[in-house]
Amino acid sequence: MVKIYSNASFKKLSDNFSSGNRDGIDQSIKTSATKLATKPPTKPAVTLSIAFYNNLYLLELQLVSLLRQSLGRTKDTQGCFFEVLICDDGSRPEVVAEVHRWMDQSSLPIKHLWHEDKGFRKNRLLNWGIYHSTSEYIVFIDQDCLLHPEFLREHYLGQKAGAILCGRRMELTPFVSKLLNLKRVANGFIERNLWWIIPLSLPVKDANGGKGVYLTNPWMRKMANRKPRDIVGCNFSVHRSDLLAVNGFDWRYEAPGTGEDSDIDYRLTLQGLTKIPFVGKAVQYHVYHKLSSRPSVNDEIFKQVKAEGKAWTRFGLNEQLAEAGMTVSQLKI
Hints:
- This protein is an alpha/beta fold.
- The chain is 35% helix and 15% strand.
- It is built from 14 helices and 11 strands.
- The protein has helices spanning 27-36, 56-67, 93-105, 122-132, 151-158, 174-179, 182-186, 189-192, 194-201, 218-224, 240-244, 262-270, 297-308, 317-323, and strands at residues 3-6, 46-52, 82-88, 110-114, 137-142, 145-147, 163-166, 170-171, 236-239, 274-277, 284-286.
- The chain has an 8-stranded mixed beta sheet with strand order 1-4-3-2-5-9-7-10, with helices on both faces.
- The longest helix is centred in the N-terminal third of the chain and has 13 residues, at 93-105.
- The chain starts with a strand and ends in a 10-residue tail after the last helix.
- 42% of the residues are buried.
- Residues 10-40 have low confidence and may be disordered.
């Protein structure tokens, strides 16, 4: 069963990261964020679902990047705000305690969803995130991705009925990743130094340096998104109702890869949804780390799913509710 911890919402953001090595956070971020939290609406415009497991360093960097989000501070999103769901696949008790301490210091509305560590069960947590979301629109990311300040604003403004926004990420090199700290992320170190970060990444296979550039010109946006894109689990968004219509994520995938992107991509497409390429709009930067292995067991499950050709999975959120002793009627619509 999933355990839930929620913090108090909308304290002054100037209190965020106020102790220890958090003292270096840019004062301008604190000031603008405090203005955002003055008269909060009652319901978030967007839910940000973060897949997390044990890595406090990456999560802390990511939380700093969330403080820089422009959603709610621009004319076209005035009055909006977002909630954060940390979907924790069984982090150690000391890690959980530290996450809760950070949450208690933060004014961002955050829920921490946790279940016991029994191996890779990310999709189960993503389903609980769908259930506990209070917004109709959900953006999915991973713990190892830092967000451009316009990231959530672009996902929010770009949403369309019956569509999935399919973003991409830029891969940071080991050298650049080692340079990152709280103060640098808060001060926009990556965005301000793309002029040398991108050339440095050119020798790296699949670095996708150009995908780290935030585009504002309509023609350039159109050119960057001529190619069809599929879902990648670290950067996509979709309406909650569309996820519920296919019973969420298939929890049989108990290894990285396929289950959190290819499978949900396939079944949402069967449901009639359109995939919209979103390159150069919702920009994110992937902090370097060694990749986990991709066992072939996931491929076998996906073959079965495609052979059946059904959008609804029999191994999704409704079955999790049943396991927890809850009825389908208790599902929040």
